[in-house]
Write a sequence for this structure.
């Protein structure tokens, strides 16, 4: 008897859709979600005790793999000291200092509990610091489910946002301008029309919620230059890419190509919590000091800086900062991405791939897309069949066409080879 199906039927009676985050329901790909029983290293086991090579890694945080001994030891020690205090701790300071040591764009950082909180708070801070209301986001970029950012519709010159979720009033998103990702001309036109009213640009430097689409160097440079010229703030949403694509995050990748490049604010999450509910936002001192209790922009959180979560995050950052970690992680991730493309060529199925650090993406397309409209040209039906083909062969990919994948430090060359063999068989069966 399928224990996953039994649990799913049971969960649907108590939890909307049977899941606590929508993509887990397998609605996009069909079939029954796998209920995870336990995990270790690069693997997890479902309710039927079936083992899978895990390429979602809790959607990015598990960069060291599951159950890393140094992280476990730190968490176990912290748990014996107390779960939550509602008062400051030394470890909060240590984690903040560790984050700042790797991100020179940030002088100060505020810890929160989720990526949504980080994005929402950074947006409020940008509006408070500039005294402006309008914001720019890009179609296909996801910044959490805060009302003003839950907008994807619209493209072209500068379309005023329309909510893409019921329960979001039109007035809440009337100041959200939704532009096309990687469209420099559209961005310039928006600033030409609304420049004095724009508080900020919020952008995923590598968009992980339309699979894996990186901002081009000219586009990112235009974002920085236009914000500087018009007095707006540039917010990099590095909830997914932070400490995942590089020890210095995606901003370090762009700084190597754009002299002097820095964002004004950065939202972080996932890796900095190591799998615990922890996120952050930070930036230059003059902006961050606009936050309460120093300034007029209010932000608070009962569990912000939770002592167990900060122990997990601090141990994770210290481990990934060890010499050679990112070089090895990048090599394994690139081997997987290149291997998928080569397997596609071998069996006659077009696959385009890209990767950075421990993050990768693939499309059933001849060429890599550069914006959401191009991503939507991917063959969704073929992807669903491929996903289930991989699942049947013990490989767990993101159960949605538009989600990036993640490799951890625990994945071995043997795991990559097993994955590529499974991909070959699954593609041949399409």
């Amino acid at each position: 008897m399928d224990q996953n199906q039994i649990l799913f039927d049971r969960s649907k009676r108590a939890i909307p859709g049977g899941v606590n985050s929508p993509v887990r329901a397998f609605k996009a790909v069909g079939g029954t979600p796998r209920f995870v029983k336990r995990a270790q290293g690069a693997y997890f086991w479902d309710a039927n005790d079936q083992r899978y090579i895990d390429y979602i890694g809790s959607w990015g945080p598990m960069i060291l793999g599951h159950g890393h001994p140094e992280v476990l030891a730190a968490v176990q020690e912290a748990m014996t000291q107390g779960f939550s205090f509602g008062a400051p701790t030394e470890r909060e300071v240590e984690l903040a200092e560790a984050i700042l040591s790797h991100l020179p764009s940030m002088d100060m950082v505020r810890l929160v509990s989720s990526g949504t909180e980080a994005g929402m708070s950074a947006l409020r801070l940008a509006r408070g610091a500039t005294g402006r209301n309008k914001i720019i986001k890009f179609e296909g970029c996801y910044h959490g489910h805060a009302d003003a950012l839950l907008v994807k519709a619209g493209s072209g010159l500068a379309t005023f946002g329309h909510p893409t979720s019921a329960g979001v009033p039109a007035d809440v998103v009337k100041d959200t301008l939704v532009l096309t990702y990687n469209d420099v001309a559209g961005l310039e036109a928006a600033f030409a029309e609304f420049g004095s009213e724009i508080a900020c640009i919020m952008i995923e430097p590598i968009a992980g919620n339309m699979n894996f689409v990186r901002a081009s160097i000219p586009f990112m440079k235009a974002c920085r230059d236009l914000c500087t010229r018009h007095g707006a703030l540039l917010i990099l949403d590095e909830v997914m890419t932070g400490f995942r694509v590089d020890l210095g995050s995606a901003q370090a990748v762009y700084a190597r190509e754009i002299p002097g490049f820095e964002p004004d604010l950065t939202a972080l999450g996932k890796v900095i919590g190591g799998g615990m509910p922890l996120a952050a936002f930070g930036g230059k001192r003059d902006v961050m000091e606009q936050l309460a209790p120093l300034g007029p922009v209010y932000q608070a959180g009962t569990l912000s800086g939770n002592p167990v979560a900060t122990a997990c995050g601090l141990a994770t950052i210290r481990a990934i900062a060890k010499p050679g970690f990112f070089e090895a992680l990048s090599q394994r991730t690139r081997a997987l991405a290149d291997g998928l493309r080569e397997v596609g060529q071998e069996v006659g199925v077009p696959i385009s791939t890209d990767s950075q650090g421990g993050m990768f993406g693939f499309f059933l397309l001849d060429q890599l897309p550069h914006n959401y409209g191009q991503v939507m040209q991917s063959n969704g039906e073929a992807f669903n069949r491929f996903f289930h083909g991989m699942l049947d062969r013990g490989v767990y990919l993101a159960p949605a066409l538009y989600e990036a994948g993640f490799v951890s430090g625990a994945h071995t060359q043997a795991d990559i080879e097993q994955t590529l063999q499974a991909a070959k068989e699954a593609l041949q069966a399409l």
Notes: The radius of gyration is 21 Å. DSSP finds 13 helices and 17 strands in the chain. The longest strand covers residues 198-203. Residues 153-163 have pLDDT under 50 and may be disordered.
